[in-house]
Amino acid sequence: MRFARPPAFPVAALLATTLLGGCLFGGRDAPRQSTPIHERRSGPVTLNGPTPRDTQQCFTDLSRAQVRYSPLPDRDFGSGCIVTGAVQLLDIGVPVTGLKSMRCPLARTFTGWVRYGVAPAAREILGSDLVRVESFGTYSCRGIIGNGAASARKMSEHGLGNAVDISAFVLRDGRRITILGGWRSPDPEVREFLSVVHQSACKRFRTVLSPNYNAAHQNHLHLDMGRGPFCA
Ligand SMILES: [Zn+2]
C-alpha cells in the first residue's frame, strides 16, 4: 500500500506549499472570482473524514456544553469539496456572524476558543464583555489544482468545512476590534488582546494564520483543524 506523503522539501518550502492558503480572500466584500487560489496539500480527502462514531461523540460534547446546533447532512459538492459530520452552530453563548457548515470538531474547538479564550481576554484586558464575533465564513469550495502527484490533491480546509476566518470582535462598550485595524493598533491593550486571542487559538486549532503570516491574512485569523500544528 502506498501512502501519499509530501516530497522532502526543505521545511520552509513545505510549509509554504502546505499552508499558504489555508485561506485566501480579502474579506466578505472582496470579489471572489478575482482572488488567487491559495490551496493546501491535504492528501486524498475522501479518506480523512470523521467516522460516524467520532461525529456522534462530538454532537454529544456540543450538547453537554449547552451549544445549540443543527446537524447537517453529509454532502459531496464535487471537486473534492466534501463536508461530513458538519453542524450549523445556532447559539454558542455569543453571537457569531457568517458561520455556515463546520465539521463538528471545528465547531467544538471554535466554541471553546470563543468562550474560554476570547471572552475572558476581552473582559480582563479590555474591560468589557464580548458581545459579538464576526467571521468571513467557514465552508467555501475553493478550486483544486493538480500538483503533479497522482495521489495528492491540494485544497483549502474551507472546502472541507474545516476552517473558519475571524475578522472582528465587538464589545459591550461599543468597541469593534478588527484584525485589520487592531493588529498593529497604537493602543497596547488592543494589541495585547489580539495577541492573547491568537495564542489561545494556536493552543486549540491545528493551523492558525494571522497578519504575521502574510498580507493575504491581514484582515482575519484563519483557524482550521487540518494539518499542523502551525501557528503564525
Ligand atoms: Zn481561511
Question: Keyphrases for this structure?
Answer:
5 helices; Extensin; seven-stranded mixed beta sheet; alpha+beta; three-stranded antiparallel beta sheet; Extensin-like_C; single chain; globular; disordered N terminus; binds zinc ion; 12 strands; 232 residues; 20% strand
Overview of the molecule:
There is one protein chain. With 232 residues, the chain is an alpha+beta fold. It has one domain (40-231). 28% of the residues lie in helices and 20% in strands. It is built from 5 helices and 12 strands. Helix 3 runs antiparallel to helix 5 (188-204). The model is unreliable at 1-21, 24-47 and 143-153 (pLDDT under 50). Bound molecules: zinc ion. Zinc ion (ZN) binds next to strand 8. Zinc ion is lined by residues 22-23, 158, 163, 165, 222.
How are the secondary structure elements laid out?
Blueprint: H1 11-19, H2 52-64, E1 68-71, E2 75-76, E3 82-83, E4 86-91, E5 96-97, E6 102-103, H3 104-126, E7 130-137, E8 163-171, E9 176-178, H4 179-182, H5 188-204, E10 207-209, E11 221-224, E12 230-231
Parallel strand pairs: 5-7, 10-12
Antiparallel strand pairs: 1-4, 2-3, 4-6, 7-8, 8-9, 8-11, 10-11
Zinc ion is lined by residues 22-23, 158, 163, 165, 222.
